[in-house]
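Cross-posted from the bioinformatics board.
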Amino acid sequence: MNPELIRGLLYIVASIFFIFGLKMLSSQATARRGNLVSAVGMLIAVVTTVTAMEDIRWFWVVFGVGLGCVVGVLAARLVKMTAMPEMVGLFNGFGGLASLLVGWSEYHGQWATSGTLSLFTTIAIFLTVLIGAVTFSGSMVAYGKLSTLITGRPVLYKRQNLVNAFVLGALAGLGVLFCVQKLDQLSSAGHALVYVELIAIIVLALILGVLSTIPIGGADMPVVICLLNSYSGLAACAAGFVIGNNVLIVSGSLVGASGIILTRIMCKAMNRSLANVLFSGFGSATSAKAAGYQGKANPIAASDAYFILEAARNVVFVPGYGMAAAQAQHAVRELGELLRSNGAEVRYCIHPVAGRMPGHMNVLLAEANVPYEMLVEPQDVNPTMETVDVAIVIGANDVVNPAAKEDQASPLWGMPIIEVDRARTCIVLKRSLNPGFAGVDNPLFFKPNTRMLFGDAKASVAALVSEFKQ
Amino acid sequence: MELNATTVPLLFFVFVLAMFLGVELIKKVPSQLHTPLMSGSNAISGITIVGALVASGHEGGTAVATLLAIVAVVFATINVVGGYLVTDRMLEMFKSKAKDGGKR
C-alpha cells in the first residue's frame, strides 16, 4: 500500500483517539482512561510523523525529545498540588513557544532558499507566529502572577489602551506587508526586509501577550488560563495550516474550542463579559475605593467556634484561594471528618471561579482525600441555605460577597455567589478584614450572624480540630 | 500535503468541523473536572510537536531552520509529556477516593 495513504489513515486514527480522549475526560468515571487514550493518540501521531520525515537528523530528534521528556517528567512529578495552576500555565506557554518556533523555522527554510510561498502559507505563518508568541508571553506573565513572582494585582498605567492600540495597529500593518510578499521575486534588500518584518512581528506579538495579561487581576486568572489554553490550541492549528497537516488542525481546534467553552463557563460564573475581564483592570486600586462598608465585625475565638460547630447538624465548607495559600486542605478534611463523626452532614461548596484556575479547589480537596461526592456546586446549596447550621468560609471572599446581590454599585453586582449570609451562622476564617483579591469590600463580615475567626487558615482549622479532639 | 486550491478548502473544512465537534464534546463537563480537562487539553495542544518534527526534517533544510525546529521539539515534548503526566496525577487523586473512600 502507498505509505502516504497509510500515514494519512494513521493520522485519522490519532484524531479519533484525541476525540474519544476528550469525550472521556468530561466524565468522572472515565476521565483517567480518557487521558491515557489521548496520550496514545499523541504517540501514534508522533511515530507516524517520524516515519514520514524526508531527512531525519536522528541525533537531534532523539536529543530534543529526550530532553523534553526528562524535563516534562521531572516537572510533572515534582510539582506540588498547590502549584498546579502555574505549572499548567507554564506548560501551556511552552506549547505556544513551540508553535511560534515551528512557524519561524518553516519560514526560515523557505526564506533562505528563496522558495515560493503562497499567500495562504504566509498568512498561516503570520498567524502561527502571532498566536504562538501571544500564548507564550501571556502564559509566562500568568505563571509569574500565579507563583507570585510578580504582583497579582492588575498592573495599570496611563494611556494603556493607546499603547495596546498602537501595538495592535503595528502588528496588523506588518502582518499585511508580510503576507503579501513574493519571496521569489524580491531584490536582495527586499529579501532582508521581509525577514526583519517577521522578527518585528514576533517581538510585537510577545509584547502584546504581556500587555494583554498584566492588567488582569489574580482573581480573574481562571479566565485568563482558559483563554491562553484556547490560544495554544489555535496556534497549533495554525501551524497545521503551515505544514498542511490535518492532525494538527483537528487537535488544535479541539483544544481551541474546549478552551473557549471553559472561558465562557468562567465568565458566566462571574456574570461578566470576556471583554470586561480582559480590559477593565478589575480589582485595581481605583475600583476598590467605590465600596467601603461600615459596621462592627464580631470576632470569635476557636474555643467558642467549637461550641457552635459541635451543635451543628448541617455544615458547609466554602473554600477559596486562602485555603490554597495556607495549604490548609488536609486540616480542612480532618475537621470535616470530625464533624461527620459528630453526626453532622458535611458538604464542600465550590464556586466555579474559586482559586486561581478552573477547578482549583476540587484538585486540592481531592489531594486531601475528600470524597468526590461531598463536593457540591453553589446551585446545590443555595436553595436550602436556610437549613445550613454553619457555613465555614475558608479563605474565600468575593465568591461569598453579598454585595453581589445587595449593592448595585458594587463591581461584583450580579455575580452568582454562594449565599452563606443566609446560613444560620457563618464563620469566616480570615487573616484580617482586608478586602479580597478583587479589592472589593465585603459586607458579609459585618452581618449579625457572621463570626470572624482571625488568623492563618491552617492554624485556625488546626485549632478547631484540636478542640474537637479534647 | 501540497497546499493548493483543492487542499486549502479541505483543510478549512476539517478546521470548521473540528471546532464544532470540540464545542459539542466539552459542552457538558462537571465543574469538578475543569482542571483535568484543561490540563489534558493543554497536553493535546502539544500536538505542535508533529509540526516541529516535520520542520526539523526537511531535505536540505538550513542549520538555522533545523535548530529552531529542534528547540520547538524540546518545548513541545515538555508540553506533551508534562501535560499528560500532571493530568494523570490529578485524576489519580480524584479516582482513588471513589474506590477506597473511607480508608483514610
